[in-house]
From TrEMBL, chain A:
CDD domains with a match to the protein in the record: SDR_a1
Protein name listed in UniProt: NAD-dependent epimerase/dehydratase domain-containing protein
Taxonomic lineage: Eukaryota, Viridiplantae, Streptophyta, Embryophyta, Tracheophyta
Example GO molecular function: UDP-glucose 4-epimerase activity
One Pfam family, short name: Epimerase
Domain NAD-dependent epimerase/dehydratase: 60-277
InterPro entries: Epimerase_deHydtase, NAD(P)-bd_dom_sf
Gene Ontology annotations for the cellular component aspect, listed alphabetically: cytosol
GO biological-process terms attached to the record: monosaccharide metabolic process
UniProtKB/TrEMBL annotation, chain B:
Protein name per Swiss-Prot or TrEMBL: NAD-dependent epimerase/dehydratase domain-containing protein
Lineage start: Eukaryota, Viridiplantae, Streptophyta, Embryophyta, Tracheophyta
Residue ranges constituting the NAD-dependent epimerase/dehydratase domain according to the UniProt record: 84-293
Domain of life: Eukaryota
One Pfam family matching this protein: Epimerase
GO BP annotations, alphabetical order: monosaccharide metabolic process
PANTHER family per UniProt: CHLOROPLAST STEM-LOOP BINDING PROTEIN OF 41 KDA A, CHLOROPLASTIC, UDP-GLUCOSE 4-EPIMERASE
Single GO MF annotation: UDP-glucose 4-epimerase activity
GO cellular component: cytosol
Length: 376, 400
């Protein structure tokens, strides 16, 4: 038997290696840092059963799709040959050229993407417009309440799959972590609309799939997650962190989330299933501040810890994350779907920085008024 | 002998001569059954299992508990430590292997007559003997003598923490044709990280004594597997774990917790560690050349552990947070766990061995509390010197 043994010496000093992999979404042109394989896998996931066969082109409706997740998702779907329609009010331009996206790719995408202009809260319009068009698959990226789903299901009795963007925020807070898909959910959470939507979908006969991201990050993020850190790092300000800074959270790159959305399309393993989707590793608050600095090429920041109870910030948000442990296991998606995140944290933050904040673009202006209260 | 195929991805080398057992898909989500009856936990998580993978087929030939994957009985030697938190691992593992038809010898380091043998799990070694196992005592430098030159297929080294202690065992095993060498290392060797959890392949502390042992084993043996555990609960434990909390809860004493209590740790039922080791023995080609974090798949906060113990005991709990440095106590003596995040996940075992976790602290601690009361420890007179010192000086402001 030609077996082998190999030295653990190198194993023990297994630094993540920096591989420049051409992005499968080549139009985005980010440099991805990949981790070397964590451990020896004896076999790759079997092909076929776990991989989506994108052989049959679908007529796909995306509720939303012009702001963040859908921007990336729609591009992949169009590229795979599906006919994709975005249902939006039209407040945001239907298409925008992305940083790093070539003119050709953008032109191709713009020429193929379709738009259905309307307000999803206008249930009669939703019913009539959707039933007139007929769609095979719906991606519901911006749904917040269960009543928004009914008219869609009514209009599309032959719907093959309803794919929903839920949230790990539905999980009941726990001392025992990570959250698994089987865990108790919190009917009183801020995300109860998502939970009610999942429950409604499950009660109908439709084939549904629900993805629960944790914190999403990446270029074009409209939730100031990494942006919050980048503003402070750029200004050379200390970073105020509530409590010990040991709270553990989790970030998932939007492009990995988009891939997960694609991977559940037409996938029998995803039939009526919930999946947590986020990064491989979790991160402490302190660690995230350091990771943002590293990704963007700033020196290690000064971290200032404070007790939030000592202050009254009014309605202003003092920190972009819930002040608690909050992270979820992505084991189920990895083993059932064969999906896994491509971006590690520093690499993903670098992608976000290089394509967004680092180019001078951001969603919210810097506001250090809360910081000044803390640092005073 | 020791070569890396690629410096970029040391683990992506294929080994054509080691075929995968099929199916590789982790469908083995059925509950494990052990020779000791545990009907309550079967009920508890059989429901959970069906929710986890409702559509997953159960036609996996490795369905537990009846069928062994390899079908062959192995002759296994467990070299067991005579004290400390890891002692109980050998005890469970021996009984599990025996229950599955393997031949087991457990060699405990030291003297059969020593006082250490009056403590659990050693004072219950009759259970191993009654299960058909052999118990011997001796010195790791003379394993052959202790086992009277018996031959083994598999050795589990559950004693040494450094190269010096482990080397003679490895050398002996190699010299007499042992095929598979398993080693209990420690998840404590991982380097602290900003990005938990500790995952197999993550950097380890360069000065950790276990590394020398790990490297030597990998150098000498082809079929090796290394297991890195954290903390464990289970009947027969040699070192206090949940008992530390029960002691205080039943006596209505505050439970002093260093820092904020938000720190995460990993506490597994030892049966999960044992089932992982058993999978490695019965699927050597899958296990070969791998490191496995030998832990449950859930972390718990220190506060959470205290609360779960209190729930299991059906009593209230009073958490008292303090800064060990400010109070001036030795953190190691004051509290049974590390006061920082110490959190590894068993990803390799799930992915490569198809291992599934069964630890359910809320349920398991109830059983542990029942035993705690049964042996009369709840009424045993105890001193709490360090606790008292902490309580006295608790007005010191918290540094965390």
């Amino acid at each position: 038997m030609a077996g082998f043994s190999f030295s653990l010496a190198a194993l023990h000093q297994n630094q993540p290696s920096f591989c420049l992999i051409p992005s499968s979404l080549s139009e985005f042109n980010g440099v991805r840092l990949c981790n070397s394989v964590q451990y020896k896998r004896k076999a790759l996931h079997p092909k076929g059963a776990l991989h989506v066969t994108a052989s049959s082109a679908k007529k796909i409706l995306i509720m939303g799709g012009t702001r963040f997740i859908g921007v990336f998702l729609s591009r992949i779907l169009v590229k795979e040959g599906h006919q994709v329609t975005l249902f939006t009010r039209g407040k945001t331009p239907v298409t925008q050229q992305l940083p790093g996206e070539s003119d050709e790719d953008y032109a191709d995408f713009s020429s193929k993407i379709l738009h259905l202009k309307g307000d999803r809260k206008d249930f009669d319009f939703v019913r009539s417009s959707l039933s007139a068009e007929g769609f095979d698959v719906v991606y519901d990226i911006n749904g917040r309440a269960a009543d928004e789903v009914e008219p869609i299901l009514d209009a599309l009795p032959k719907l093959e799959q309803y794919i929903y963007c839920s949230s790990a925020g539905v999980y009941l807070k726990s001392d025992v972590l990570p959250h698994f898909e089987i865990d108790a959910v919190d009917p009183k959470s801020r995300h109860k609309g998502k939970l009610e939507t999942e429950t409604l979908l499950d009660s109908k006969g439709v084939n549904w799939t629900s993805l629960r991201p944790v914190y999403i990050y990446g270029p074009l993020n409209y939730n100031p997650v990494e942006e919050w850190f980048f503003h402070r790092l750029k200004s050379g300000r200390p970073i105020p962190i509530p409590g010990s800074g040991l709270q553990i959270t989790q970030l998932g790159h939007v492009k990995d989330l988009a891939k997960a959305f694609v991977q559940v399309l037409g996938n029998e393993k995803a039939r009526r299933q919930v999946f947590n989707i986020s990064g491989e590793k979790y991160v402490t608050f302190d660690g995230l501040a350091r990771a943002c600095a590293k990704a963007a090429g700033f020196p290690e920041p000064e971290l200032v810890h404070y007790n939030p109870k000592d202050f009254d910030f009014g309605k202003k948000k003092s920190f972009p994350f819930r002040d608690q442990h909050y992270f979820a296991s992505i084991d189920k998606a990895k083993s059932l779907l064969g999906w896994k995140p491509e971006f590690d944290l520093v690499g993903g933050l670098a992608d976000s920085y290089n394509l967004d904040f680092g180019r001078g673009t951001f969603r919210e202006d810097a506001d250090f008024s809360v910081d000044d209260m803390i640092l005073a | 002998m020791a070569t890396l195929v690629s410096s970029c991805c040391p683990f992506s080398c294929s080994t054509p001569s080691t075929p995968r057992p099929s199916p590789r898909f982790p469908l083995s989500s059925l509950p494990r059954v052990f020779s000791s009856s545990r009907s309550s936990f079967l009920f508890t998580y059989s429901a959970r299992i069906s929710l986890v993978h409702p559509l997953m087929s159960r036609s996996n030939p490795r369905s537990y508990p009846s069928v062994k994957a390899s079908g062959e009985n192995k002759k296994v030697l467990i070299l067991n430590t005579n004290s400390g938190g890891h002692a109980v691992i050998g005890f469970y593992f021996a009984k599990e292997l025996l229950g599955r038809g393997h031949e087991v010898t457990i060699m405990t380091v030291g003297d059969e007559k020593s006082d250490k043998m009056k403590k659990p799990p050693f004072n219950r070694f009759s259970e191993i003997v009654n299960g058909g196992g052999r118990t011997v005592w001796g010195d790791p430098t003379e394993v052959g003598k202790a086992v009277e030159e018996a031959a083994f297929d598999v050795v589990l080294e559950n004693n040494g923490k450094d190269l010096e202690t482990v080397r003679p065992v490895v050398d002996w095993a190699k010299s007499c044709g042992v095929k598979q060498f398993l080693y209990i290392s420690s998840a404590g060797i991982y380097k602290p990280t900003d990005e938990p959890p500790h995952v197999e392949g993550d950097m380890v502390k360069v000065d950790a004594s276990h590394i020398g042992a790990e490297e030597y084993i990998a150098k000498i043996f082809n079929s090796w597997a290394i297991f890195r555990p954290q903390y464990m609960i289970g009947s027969g434990n040699n070192k206090d774990c949940e008992e530390w909390f029960f002691d205080r809860i039943v006596r209505e004493r505050p439970v002093p917790i260093p820092g904020s209590g938000m720190q995460l740790t990993n506490i597994s039922h030892v049966r999960d560690l044992s089932s992982m080791l058993t999978l490695a023995v019965e699927n050597p080609t899958a296990a070969i050349g791998n490191i496995f974090n030998c832990v449950s798949d859930r972390a718990v906060t220190l506060n959470g552990m205290a609360k779960l113990c209190a729930q299991a005991a059906g009593r209230p709990v009073n958490l008292l947070h303090y800064d060990p440095k400010a109070v001036g106590v030795d953190a190691k003596k004051a509290f049974p766990f590390r006061a920082m995040h110490f959190y590894a996940e068993p990803r390799a075992a799930k992915d490569i061995l198809g291992w599934r976790c069964s630890t359910n602290l809320a349920e398991d601690l109830k059983e542990r509390f029942e035993e705690y009361v049964k042996i009369g420890r709840d009424t045993k007179p105890m001193q709490f010197e360090i606790d008292d010192k902490i309580i006295e000086t608790v007005n010191v402001p918290l540094a965390v």
